[in-house]
Amino acid sequence: MASTKTPHAPRAVRLPHPLPLDSGRELADVHVAYETYGELAPARDNAILLCHALTGDQYVASTHPLTGKPGWWERMVGHGRPIDTNRFHVVCANVIGSCMGSTGPASAGPDGEPYAMRFPVITIRDMVRAQAALLDVLGIDTLLAVIGGSMGGMQALSLAANFPERTNRVLGIATTARHSAQNIAFHEVGRQAIMADPGWNGGDYYGAAGGPEKGLAVARMAAHITYLSEAGLTDKFGRRLQDRDAKSFGFDADFQVESYLRHQGLSFTDRFDANSYLYITRAMDYFDLAEEHGGRLADAFGGAGETRFCLVSFDTDWLYSTADMREVVHALNAVAAPVSFVELGAPYGHDSFLLDVPALDRVVAGFLSQ
Amino acid sequence: MASTKTPHAPRAVRLPHPLPLDSGRELADVHVAYETYGELAPARDNAILLCHALTGDQYVASTHPLTGKPGWWERMVGHGRPIDTNRFHVVCANVIGSCMGSTGPASAGPDGEPYAMRFPVITIRDMVRAQAALLDVLGIDTLLAVIGGSMGGMQALSLAANFPERTNRVLGIATTARHSAQNIAFHEVGRQAIMADPGWNGGDYYGAAGGPEKGLAVARMAAHITYLSEAGLTDKFGRRLQDRDAKSFGFDADFQVESYLRHQGLSFTDRFDANSYLYITRAMDYFDLAEEHGGRLADAFGGAGETRFCLVSFDTDWLYSTADMREVVHALNAVAAPVSFVELGAPYGHDSFLLDVPALDRVVAGFLSQ
């Protein structure tokens, strides 16, 4: 996606103030693109902030303007769904640093040219600051809940830690309070794949015919493996061949899993900006909620007061494991925060939070009805 | 490593006959480079064939001619070591398809130009055919043992299945009888990283100033993650910063694990040929010992007779897990082959077979003394 122009006009607000960043820099002229689903009640007390994952966007339950595909969580959000838009006003904003309408590296900087690598390095907390500023603009003081899976869950936890007064409930799914060495390693492979692509050109590829699409595809392929369990990959593909009866003894995609990964990589480049991938993975790698709060995770949640937490992990998720989640639970227990925790059985690995796991539906609906 | 010339003169034999390949093709004028350690007994009954892993070579217990580093298994092979060169004659050959003196894609084809991607796609069984042909030249009919870890273990199992009369013992460490969908997926990421590099140029980069070194480095980085356990990475690196007191809020290697991976990737390109990486990963992905023998793994070992097997897995190896190894054990049990199996505790993941695991030394020494 080498264009500097988003080929649609997303619904967005311009934040009234520059955004202070963890790096010490400020980001001025910040636009936050968002979608809403369901009506805000007159008392303004039924708002849910949904936070998307690394490559997600604000199109939770509406058609993606670039791909034409359904929203990424339509099974969870809508009329009569677990996050019931008959009852709740759902807000989902594109994170800053991303490429679906919120200010990111593809956006014009002060000189009118795309920021590219002049965009400041941001953190998960910076993303959350932008979310809070959006809520200010929308006139939503206190959320009924903040909800997110994966990087969305990091934002949910960060919001609870840094803006505890702004939400009554926190629901984190398949997430972690800290990126591990292995997590960082996989992201570093992706970043190096992008930067190794001559089309990246130090980040200055906007307006060029092609960007670092091959590098971005490789980054996506590497990451995608971590989103699936080994058993899930085996069930889905095993060693089955792709449209052939025998091995080709060549380098075509003989195996279905190869063909699938290549497709995942290529289709990703149609909708995502490589520099955004660099910045958002960096934000995730920097995420360590304990470190932000003096080194003790429990201290991150000292101000959570009556905020209720619900945390969900999946038994086959090896990216953000149940053990990672237990650390969060223990920290919440240490400050006597009300928390429920469940490890769900699901065969799909990390991506389970996006897939058909009826038990997750029940957990989400139950937590919101309390 | 874009040169067509290996910058040393390895000890090698030229096979007297063309090598038949699983693809149906033949490879003519095959050279097999090898090293030996310890004397061959007059009865020629003390030979051990060591098979190296994906990026390994014949320099088991002698200095690597390109890197100047010690041999890759000096802790296991030598005077008084578990594979004691006072007693045994150890042979280790560079696999065909590789780049340390055996015929591979960088070698001159019939027209005198490097094969590059005209090199035939080979299999693990083809590698083993070359090993057997080398043993013929060396006048070694029956091995005291064939030993290998990782891809070396695949060769050991394949030799037992296809040339059962040629060895009395088989020792497979941290290996598998079949590459899984996840194994294939990681290799495919590496291949795509290489092929995405414009320096790859369809494989025709020999003699050029630079080959696909960036792509090869990314491939190595992705693979390297799979060689280590998550706990091992956490113990070794955690979230420690590299030579700095605080995050840089940039894209330098802030974290030690990033710096380590970058080094692993870059240093690899000094000693390995990218096309060899493509061919050898393909051979591994094609490996399915059951499929080669009618779909039932036990049938692969029907001719093993009195051959004794010893299989070793590591509890933290998520590349080739204990569960993979158990399938081999069950197949051997089904044909009543003598087999001992042990899962060793070691924190390092797949790479444990190369590292300081004293329990492995005892298993190896014990198996060879029986």
From TrEMBL, chains A, B:
Pathway: Amino-acid biosynthesis; L-methionine biosynthesis via de novo pathway; O-acetyl-L-homoserine from L-homoserine: step 1/1. InterPro entries: AB_hydrolase_1 (IPR000073), AB_hydrolase_fold (IPR029058), HAT_MetX-like (IPR008220). It catalyses: L-homoserine + acetyl-CoA = O-acetyl-L-homoserine + CoA. Coiled coil: none annotated. It is found in: Cytoplasm. Its EC number is 2.3.1.31. It is an enzyme of class 2 (transferase). It holds the Pfam family Abhydrolase_1. The active site is at residues 150, 317, 350. Residues 1-20 are annotated as: Disordered. Keywords: Acyltransferase, Amino-acid biosynthesis, Cytoplasm, Methionine biosynthesis, Transferase. Residues 46-291 form the AB hydrolase-1 domain. The keyword Signal does not apply. Substrate binds at residues 220, 351. Homodimer. NCBIfam families: homoserO_Ac_trn (TIGR01392), PRK00175.1 (NF001209). Transfers an acetyl group from acetyl-CoA to L-homoserine, forming acetyl-L-homoserine. This is Homoserine O-acetyltransferase. It comes from Aurantiacibacter spongiae.
